[in-house]
Amino acid sequence: EIAVAARLGGEDPAMNPRLRTAIEKAKEANMPHDNIKRAIQKGTGELPGASYEEAIYEGYGPGGVALLIEVLTDNKNRTVAEIRHLLGKHGGSLGEAGCVSWMFEKKGYILVEKSSTDEDTLMSIVIDAGAEDMKNDPREAHYEIITAPEDLKKVKDVLVEQGIPVSVAEITMLPKSCVSLDGNMAEKMIRLMEILEDHDDVQNVYANFDLPDEVMANVEK
Questions:
Q1: Cys bridge to 201: 67, 71, 118, 189, which one at CB 3.0-4.6 A?
Q2: CATH number, domain at 58?
Q3: pTM over 0.85
Q4: Distance (Å) of CA 146 to CA 115, 116, 175
Q5: TACO1/YebC-like N-terminal domain: from which residue to which, for each copy (predicted)?
Q6: Roughly what angle, to the nearest 10 degrees, separates helices 213-220 and 183-198?
Q7: Domain count for the chain
Q8: pLDDT higher than 90, residue 107
């Protein structure tokens, strides 16, 4: 991701928001500084290395669930064949470009632990900072904050300035509506998500399904 971001937007994180975010994630994962530097140099062509490309595959999972699959690969033909095989094997199918992308919106996504602040205080801070929405799912340990992609960094910086720790801050694809799954169909979809996410070339998988509380409870057991 660092190499691709540097190749597409240049080596200066101050002028390349995507690279800046990738570096922040790498540091959070304790990636050594030298490794980050080499990844940037590979992206800009200063160091030799495999040429990686991004691709987004669209398709369907069990129950008609829409899937967006973001990959980073040095061989698109190999990767698309493997993704097609995995989808077909687990009750899904690969679709044409554009078949499901309209079902998702690109958004900034922030998670804040509920133990770090109260809902009213956080709501006031993030809305004033430019966030679009905040959600409090009683089943979850985090508040969800939604922003326009270009406002993600601004809202995150305001939270940090207020002393509120941020667990996640990233650009994501949120579904406009969700398909409710239960029973065997839910199990199949969860299994497919796990298999796709385990694929070496897959960076992110977005899906538009929801699980009822009783199904979620069984999954968490």
A1: 71
A2: 3.30.70.980
A3: no
A4: 19, 18, 12
A5: 1-46
A6: 50
A7: 3
A8: yes
76, 98: one domain? yes
Amino acid at position 96, single letter: E
Q: Which domain covers residue 87, as residue numbers?
A: 53-102+177-220
Rounded Cα distance, 178 and 212, in Å: 12
What does the angle CA 58 – CA 143 – CA 214 come to, to the nearest 5 degrees? Answer: 70
pLDDT band at residue 184 using 50, 70 and 90 as cut-offs: confident
130: which 2 tokens?
């430019």
Of 126, 92, 90, 99, the closest CA to residue 110 belongs to 126
- C-beta separation of 145 from 112 below 8 A: yes
Same domain, 13 and 112: no
Is the separation of the CB atoms in 6 and 43 below 8 Å?
yes
